[in-house]
């Protein structure tokens, strides 16, 4: 059998961002203002700084207003909650993203709960989690929504397919499982206590790996022809003192068996940022009382 098709997340993300930019121009003409996204970073984690910078760049490239807020690593929870209250009340801000993880002195659940659900473009609040699980419109977390877009683009209707999601975090695994269920897949959610994982993965037409362990999913776990979505972002030693990014899937092995597979980098990561732009545009439409007709 020939090698898997490589799903070009970077190209998909560029196409989505171009659509969002068109939508921003139309919104501005109708509403007399541009959508705004506020990104809050607490502390100086270098990887988080890179993500926050690329989110700001993408926001501006889409024609939206970008508001960047930095708090020191030792900032108190009260300081962060006060900033969120200001952003909730600011009519120029349609979306609020607080970069996770947060320093240990800050309770993430309390911070997420403080973000107004209509500005929660990450889709992490209880209100938006509930809406997703009962099938009402709300905000869906960017990473799993980006994965669902890649899957539908590749496979069309997902109804009846067997899917396995490896990982059950609130930001990736659980919402991914909800999205696949909503698309009529038969969904297995695997985690660290799952027995016979390889055997369960072998039954799946769709494999979503969100584990956080480099090369965790092996090629001989993959059913021939399956579609593999690798969410993992792991920085490993590449020898000679350098590092490189790899996913949760042993890419070279899986590629020889799968029907299609996302690379790391250039797969799910760029989609996450493009969907964040899309969610911010949706938030602006809802706030302005305008219908949103885009993707
Ligand atoms: N591309 C992107 O845009 C994004 C990428 N990521 C990346 O995705 C990965 C996952 O992120 P996230 O969901 O936040 O991670 P978490 O650490 O929150 O969750 C990891 C999940 O993997 C499960 N797990 C751990 N070990 C095993 C094992 N041996 N067998 C089966 N399951 C296991 C855990 O199970 P248990 O619950 O039992 O502990 C847990 O549910 C990371 O690499 C992260 O960097 C994350 C967000 C966005
Ligand atoms: N509130 C919140 N929302 C998030 O959505 C969120 C978060 N916190 N904390 C961290 C994770 C991680 N995440 C990524 C986004 C883009 C890439 C991305 O663009 N990756 C590039 C590579 C980037 C590089 O080279 O470092 C790629 O995969 O091609 C990766 C990871 C969003 N997250």
Spell the H/E element sequence. Answer: EHEHEHEHHHEHEHEEEEHEH
Total count of domains: 2
CATH architectural grouping of the largest domain: 3-Layer(aba) Sandwich
Report the sheet-strand fraction.
15-25%
CATH superfamily of the largest domain: NAD(P)-binding Rossmann-like Domain
End-to-end separation in angstroms reads 35 Å
Q: Which structural category do the helix and sheet elements fall into?
A: alpha/beta
Helix percent reads: 40-55%
Record field, number of beta strands: 11
GO molecular function: methenyltetrahydrofolate cyclohydrolase activity; methylenetetrahydrofolate dehydrogenase (NADP+) activity
Function: Catalyzes the oxidation of 5,10-methylenetetrahydrofolate to 5,10-methenyltetrahydrofolate and then the hydrolysis of 5,10-methenyltetrahydrofolate to 10-formyltetrahydrofolate.
EC number: 1.5.1.5, 3.5.4.9
Domain Tetrahydrofolate dehydrogenase/cyclohydrolase NAD(P)-binding: 141-286
Helices and strands, with pairings:
Elements: E1 5-6, H1 9-31, E2 36-42, H2 46-61, E3 65-71, H3 77-89, E4 95-98, H4 108-114, H5 126-134, H6 142-155, E5 162-166, H7 173-182, E6 186-190, H8 197-201, E7 206-209, E8 227-230, E9 234-237, E10 243-246, H9 251-255, E11 260-261, H10 268-288
Parallel strand pairs: 1-11, 2-3, 2-4, 5-6, 5-7, 7-8, 8-11
Antiparallel strand pairs: 9-10
The structure holds NADPH dihydro-nicotinamide-adenine-dinucleotide phosphate (NDP) and 5,10-Methenyltetrahydrofolate (GUE).
């Amino acid at each position: 059998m020939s090698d898997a098709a490589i799903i070009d997340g970077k190209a998909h993300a560029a196409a989505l961002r171009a659509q969002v930019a068109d939508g921003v121009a139309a919104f501005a003409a109708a509403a007399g203002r541009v959508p705004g996204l506020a990104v809050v970073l607490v502390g100086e984690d270098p990887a988080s700084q890179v993500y926050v910078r690329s989110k700001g760049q993408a926001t501006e490239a889409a024609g939206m207003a970008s508001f960047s807020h930095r708090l020191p690593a030792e900032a108190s929870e009260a300081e962060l909650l006060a900033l969120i209250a200001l952003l909730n009340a600011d009519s120029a801000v349609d979306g609020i993203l607080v970069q996770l993880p947060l320093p240990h002195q800050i309770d993430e659940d309390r911070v997420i709960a403080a973000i107004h659900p209509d500005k929660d473009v990450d889709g992490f609040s209880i209100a938006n989690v509930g809406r997703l699980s009962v099938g009402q419109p709300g905000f869906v977390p960017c990473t799993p929504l980006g994965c669902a877009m890649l899957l539908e683009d590749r496979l069309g209707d997902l109804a009846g397919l067997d899917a396995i999601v490896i990982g059950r975090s609130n930001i990736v695994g659980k919402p991914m499982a909800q999205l696949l269920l909503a698309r009529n897949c038969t969904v297995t959610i695997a985690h660290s206590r799952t027995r016979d994982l390889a055997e369960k993965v072998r039954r799946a037409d769709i494999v979503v790996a969100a584990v956080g362990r480099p090369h965790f999913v092996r090629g001989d776990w993959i059913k021939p022809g399956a579609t593999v979505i690798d969410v993992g972002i792991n920085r490993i030693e590449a020898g000679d003192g350098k590092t490189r990014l790899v996913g949760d899937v042993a890419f070279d092995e899986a590629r020889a068996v799968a029907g299609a597979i996302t690379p790391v980098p250039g797969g799910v990561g760029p989609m996450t940022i493009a969907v964040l732009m899309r969610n911010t545009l949706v938030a602006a439409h809802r706030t302005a009382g305008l219908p949103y007709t885009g993707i």
